[in-house]
Automatic annotation (TrEMBL):
Residues 13-125 form the IrrE N-terminal-like domain. This is ImmA/IrrE family metallo-endopeptidase.
Amino acid sequence: MPSQLCMTHLAAKLRIWVYTMDMNSMAIESNGQFSINVDRRLSPKEQWEDFLHELCHVLRHSGNQMAMPDRYVNWQEQDASAFQLYAALPLSMLRNLALPENKNELIAYLSEEFQVTYRLAKARIDQIERRVLQGSLDYEFQQYTQNQSNKKYDPSNWSEATRLIMNKLEFLKSRGVPAGGKANRLL
């Protein structure tokens, strides 16, 4: 249930100390203990999203970003943003809801039901749509390639130009001319 998704519940389960201050949200590790500061100047929905972003850093990343190469920091931030989408709107929970058909209504509904910003709900729905489309395209391509490999070598489907080229190739092959040999000038 979406109501189970809240900072205090998750933090208690994961033994993470959460506090709020008038500063940017961040995760901190000290002597094996983790804490997350959530920027209290943000709206409750934005605080929840920041918490999930920082939670990813706690669960999946290590090191001090101030001492890391920019590319690695960027990768960690991208990973945390992707994690945030999954954690805020888990597909397993979405499947159990009666969802509106209209995309804008769906996004607004999910924003309220899961207490996330409209922007994050839209990003998650867009992500799901892309994955569904990719799955459909992958399936169609697989079907197409299977059909292509099942087709027999059928000269009756050749154009006249293809027939002429293939006949020349057969002629050269019968004369023992290797592919790429001097007989290429005949073609």
